[in-house]
Amino acid sequence: QVQLVESGGGLVQPGGSLRLSCAASGNSGSAAAMGWYRQAPGKQRELVATITRGSSTNYADSVKGRFTISRDNAENAVYLQMNTLKPEDTAVYYCYVHWSFNNYWGQGTQVTVSS
């Protein structure tokens, strides 16, 4: 059974930084794609960033230049370095993995940007 374990959320002031981590286990080989989505109160879940096994990346326009996604294929781990955080980045962040033709989601980690 595939499991995703997220960590790294929290409260940070505007302009600050956080690093999210997600470790996937329970399947063989490396995941085809990994990434992060987020959902703010009263809004739909939206893509933040994704990265393929070959390290091709895709970012939402709202986070380009501020967030960086990376992964460790050997560990099936994905990371999101978030810099210059803004109050509008406040949301629950969900890890996403596309693995063996199935999609898997983490339980979510809260990121709050506030002074």
Secondary structure tally: strands: 11
Overall morphology: globular
Distance between the termini: 40 Å
The percentage helix is under 10%
Number of helices: 0
The biggest sheet amounts to: 7 strands, mixed
Uncertain runs: none
Q: What is the chain-wise order of helices and strands?
A: EEEEEEEEEEE
Structural class: mainly beta
Structure report:
With 115 residues, this protein is mainly β. The chain has no helices and 11 strands. The strands form 2 sheets. Strands 2, 4, 5, 6, 9, 10 and 11 form a 7-stranded mixed sheet that branches. A hairpin with a 4-residue loop joins strand 7 and strand 8 (77-82). The protein starts with a strand and ends with a strand.
How would you summarize this macromolecular structure in one to three sentences?
0% of the residues lie in helices and 55% in strands.
